[in-house]
Structures are given as C-alpha cells and as structure tokens.
From TrEMBL:
It comes from the Eukaryota. Its EC number is 5.3.1.1. It comes from Cynara cardunculus var. scolymus. This is Triosephosphate isomerase, cytosolic. InterPro entries: Aldolase_TIM (IPR013785), TIM_sf (IPR035990), TrioseP_Isoase_bac/euk (IPR022896), Triosephosphate_isomerase (IPR000652), Triosephosphate_isomerase_AS (IPR020861).
Length: 249
C-alpha cells in the first residue's frame, strides 16, 4: 500500500535540441503536485540525456530508453548500464514493445537486461503487454504473465522496478484501454506477483499503464485501484504531459 503515483514520459526517437529546449521550458515552468505525491521521470533519446538531466527541474528525473544486456565492450552502437550509472542517469526503460517487436528482444533477453541494469544500480521501468491478436484470442493474461515471469526468474530487487503494462494495440494508436480493461490486467499482474513472488512485492510494486494516455483519459484510468501511474509516449512531448501528471492528485 502507499504506492507513490509514477508518471514516465517516453520521448522515443523524437526531438531536435531546439524542440527539447522548448519542451524543457514548458516542463520546468509547470505547476504539478509535489514529489511526495508523484514521481516523474522523462526519457529523452540517449544523445540528449546528460543535457536534459542538468537542465530539467530537480523534482523530475531522467530515464534512458534502453541499455545493453551486459558489461560494455565490443558492442558497436550500444550503451551500457555502467555508462548510464556513471553519468548519474537513475532510470532505464527496458522491454518496450517497440524494442521487442522491431529489435526481436525476447522475454529472456529482456529479463537478462533488467537483471544487469539493476545490478549496476539503475532503476527499471519494465514493460509488458499483449498484441491485438493475443488479446482477441483471449491470451492477454497468459502473455503478460509469461513476460513478467521471464523478468522474475532473473531478479530479486523488485523495489527498484516499476512494471509498465502497455497493450501493444494501444501504443501510439489513439486506441486507449478502457479503465476496466487496464484495471483487470493490473489486478491480474498484482495477483501474479503475490502468488509467485510475495505479498510484500505485490503490494508495493507500482504497476503503471501505457498506451494512448492523454489529458482527457488520464483521470479515470488513474483512479483505478491498481493503476499506479502511466508511461506516456506521444503526449509526453506536449504541455498535456503536465495535465497527466496532475492525475496523481
Ligand atoms: C509508449 O510508447 O510507451 C506509449 C505509451 O506511447 P503512446 O502514449 O504514444 O501510446
């Protein structure tokens, strides 16, 4: 109980330095609930992470959008968890559906990545979610449970993990899950944690929803008992992100 509301903004592969400057001014000037009520993390592309970290208001934090699965070395084009820790980037998003689908990241690979990032002192936003086909065939819970199990098999430090339920059919489509659909899966995930990890982990782990969250739908979604916040894509690049943060109130 007492889970602090969490709002993450995933900027994905968007933004020029000029656009990011404008977005930062907007975020830095925004009135939002205090850090006792909501934890806010924004995730710019790697290149902008250090400058965003230093320019962003001190009550918001930053996340990388990915990191390598093990210690750095001869892995051209990758960024290691050690590098993120070295630059004091506290959070990393792992297992986003775009990476699972476009870069063939398997459940096991995602589990390994999360375990390694945690071992380097990073906190992780771990994403799970079913495709439309999987939902329509009735296997949503089975799919997200298997994704969660592949993570749980590799980690024990759940206190540094936020679990993001992001149905693939809702990401970037404008087709948001209904509050009841989100609540149903979040409750199933919490029950899964209770049964397979512990009552403590189940009651303290934040389970956030992602998929076409906006200023208009966030209040009702955020009011669901097992929805502990959001991972926001498109709307995190706009002033609307501030309204979404206010759903914590
Ligand atoms: C996301 O990419 O994590 C996401 C939820 O995107 P959107 O809000 O644009 O659907």
């Amino acid at each position: 109980m007492g889970r602090k509301f969490f709002v993450g903004g995933n900027w994905k592969c968007n933004g020029t330095s000029e656009e990011i400057k404008i977005l930062l001014s907007l975020l830095n000037a925004g009135q939002v609930p205090s850090g006792d009520v909501v934890e806010v993390v924004v995730s710019p592309p790697f290149l902008f992470l250090p400058s965003v970290r230093t320019t962003l208001r001190s009550d918001f934090h930053v996340a990388a959008q990915n990191c390598w699965v093990k210690k750095g070395g001869a892995f051209t084009g990758e960024i290691s968890a050690e590098m993120l820790a070295n630059l004091r980037i506290p959070w990393v998003i792992i297992g986003h559906s775009e990476r699972r689908a476009l870069f063939n990241e398997s459940n096991e690979f995602v589990g390994d990545k999360i375990a390694y990032a945690l071992s380097q002192g990073l906190k992780v936003i771990a994403c799970v979610g079913e495709s439309l086909e999987q939902r329509e065939s009735g296997s949503t819970i089975e799919v997200v449970a298997a994704q969660t199990k592949a993570i749980a098999d590799k980690i024990s430090k759940w206190s540094d993990v936020v679990l993001a339920y992001e149905p693939v059919w809702a990401i970037g489509t404008g087709k948001v899950a209904t509050p009841a659909q989100a609540q149903e899966v979040h409750l199933e995930l919490r029950n899964w944690l209770q049964k397979n990890i512990s009552a403590e982990v189940a009651s303290t782990t934040r389970i956030i929803y992602g998929g076409s969250v906006n200023g208009g739908n966030c209040k009702e979604l955020g009011a669901q008992p097992d929805v502990d916040g959001f991972l926001v894509g498109g709307a995190s690049l706009k002033a609307e992100f501030l309204d979404i943060i206010k759903a914590a109130e």
